[in-house]
């Protein structure tokens, strides 16, 4: 067991585009999604301890139970236990650990949340325990925790297909300055999928070959998030957020995941920062965060 304290970032996951392309017999929906990860997110800390523990902090920590009764907490504890089982099955030690989650992202907001935290737990504890697992085993372990966890394990630009487990890295994707905005109202993912009228949309198609931001922005502008129309019907504030992001100068506005977080892409970091400041002034009751995605 390590005697150090280690920190692992859990960056926000941004679905720059999300097409629903089918549905499996077991009910899982098939997706084709362009995904990036922001420079802002939750943070996990791992420390040596006499017995396992899990604690919460951060702006949105009070919304989750310190006893891991909340969804995110449950996933972190499950990730810890699954990784421990995998390591111990191979004769590797995985002693007690104190885990603290600094919850900076809104809960149930369409930008990773519990999946990002679970993935960060797997990455962080693997380092903390000094363990070794194949990337396939780690990805399979992540998939047991949720369809989004394998892509959050990557935390780099990617295209995700299937139920989210078929991943292709996008090495040419540029960085995008953006603003995230959420009305701090949850929207039910199962309800959104139930409201989908079409579940067999065409896949995204051929991606840009260059790293030119203008080419990528033009490409993304032709795409969509198929979950946005039903989400807007359930939560009218999503339309208001989109309008406000356009009003403060966003080049492209779209909802991420199943919402209700929307993002606006800006020309540069300074423009995104200024827009976030203006939006936060207009709507202090919203979550507003300027950030930048990680490049390929």
Automatic annotation (TrEMBL):
<dbReference type="Pfam" id="PF08544">
    <property type="entry name" value="GHMP_kinases_C"/>
</dbReference>
<feature type="binding site">
    <location>
        <begin position="106"/>
        <end position="116"/>
    </location>
    <ligand>
        <name>ATP</name>
    </ligand>
</feature>
<comment type="similarity">
    <text>Belongs to the GHMP kinase family. IspE subfamily.</text>
</comment>
<keyword id="KW-0808">Transferase</keyword>
<dbReference type="GO" id="GO:0016114">
    <property type="term" value="P:terpenoid biosynthetic process"/>
</dbReference>
<dbReference type="GO" id="GO:0019288">
    <property type="term" value="P:isopentenyl diphosphate biosynthetic process, methylerythritol 4-phosphate pathway"/>
</dbReference>
<dbReference type="GO" id="GO:0050515">
    <property type="term" value="F:4-(cytidine 5'-diphospho)-2-C-methyl-D-erythritol kinase activity"/>
</dbReference>
<keyword id="KW-0547">Nucleotide-binding</keyword>
<dbReference type="InterPro" id="IPR020568">
    <property type="entry name" value="Ribosomal_Su5_D2-typ_SF"/>
</dbReference>
<feature type="active site">
    <location>
        <position position="148"/>
    </location>
</feature>
<comment type="function">
    <text>Catalyzes the phosphorylation of the position 2 hydroxy group of 4-diphosphocytidyl-2C-methyl-D-erythritol.</text>
</comment>
<keyword id="KW-0414">Isoprene biosynthesis</keyword>
<feature type="active site">
    <location>
        <position position="13"/>
    </location>
</feature>
<feature type="domain" description="GHMP kinase N-terminal">
    <location>
        <begin position="74"/>
        <end position="153"/>
    </location>
</feature>
<dbReference type="InterPro" id="IPR004424">
    <property type="entry name" value="IspE"/>
</dbReference>
<keyword id="KW-0067">ATP-binding</keyword>
<protein>
    <recommendedName>
        <fullName>4-diphosphocytidyl-2-C-methyl-D-erythritol kinase</fullName>
        <ecNumber>2.7.1.148</ecNumber>
    </recommendedName>
</protein>
<keyword id="KW-0418">Kinase</keyword>
<dbReference type="InterPro" id="IPR014721">
    <property type="entry name" value="Ribsml_uS5_D2-typ_fold_subgr"/>
</dbReference>
<dbReference type="InterPro" id="IPR013750">
    <property type="entry name" value="GHMP_kinase_C_dom"/>
</dbReference>
<comment type="pathway">
    <text>Isoprenoid biosynthesis; isopentenyl diphosphate biosynthesis via DXP pathway; isopentenyl diphosphate from 1-deoxy-D-xylulose 5-phosphate: step 3/6.</text>
</comment>
<dbReference type="GO" id="GO:0005524">
    <property type="term" value="F:ATP binding"/>
</dbReference>
<dbReference type="Pfam" id="PF00288">
    <property type="entry name" value="GHMP_kinases_N"/>
</dbReference>
<feature type="domain" description="GHMP kinase C-terminal">
    <location>
        <begin position="222"/>
        <end position="280"/>
    </location>
</feature>
<dbReference type="InterPro" id="IPR006204">
    <property type="entry name" value="GHMP_kinase_N_dom"/>
</dbReference>
<dbReference type="InterPro" id="IPR036554">
    <property type="entry name" value="GHMP_kinase_C_sf"/>
</dbReference>
């Amino acid at each position: 067991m390590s005697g150090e304290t280690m920190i692992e970032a859990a960056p926000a996951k941004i679905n720059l585009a999300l097409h629903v392309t089918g549905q499996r017999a077991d009910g899982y929906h098939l997706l084709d999604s362009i995904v990036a990860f922001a420079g802002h997110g939750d943070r996990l800390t791992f420390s040596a301890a006499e017995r396992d523990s899990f604690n919460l902090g951060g702006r949105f920590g009070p919304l989750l139970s310190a006893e891991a009764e909340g969804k995110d907490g449950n996933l972190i504890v499950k990730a810890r236990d699954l990784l421990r089982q995998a390591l111990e099955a191979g004769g590797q030690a995985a002693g007690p650990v104190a885990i603290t989650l600094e919850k900076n992202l809104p809960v149930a907001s369409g930008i990773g949340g519990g999946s990002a935290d679970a993935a960060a737990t797997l990455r962080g504890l693997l380092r903390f325990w000094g363990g070794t697992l194949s990337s396939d085993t780690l990805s399979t372990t992540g998939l047991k925790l949720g369809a989004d966890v394998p892509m959050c394990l990557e935390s780099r630009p990617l295209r995700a297909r299937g139920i989210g487990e078929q991943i292709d890295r996008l090495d040419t994707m540029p960085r995008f300055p953006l603003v995230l905005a959420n009305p701090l109202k949850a929207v039910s993912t199962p309800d959104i999928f139930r409201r989908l009228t079409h579940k067999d949309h065409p896949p995204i198609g051929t991606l840009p070959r260059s790293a030119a931001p203008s080419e990528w922005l033009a490409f993304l502008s032709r795409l969509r998030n198929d979950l946005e129309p039903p989400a807007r019907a359930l939560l009218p504030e999503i339309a208001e957020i989109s309008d406000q992001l356009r009003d403060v100068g966003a080049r492209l506005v779209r909802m991420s995941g199943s919402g209700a977080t929307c993002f606006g892409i800006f020309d540069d970091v300074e423009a995104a920062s200024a827009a976030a400041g203006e939006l936060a002034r207009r709507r202090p009751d919203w979550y507003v965060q300027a950030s930048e995605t990680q490049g390929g």
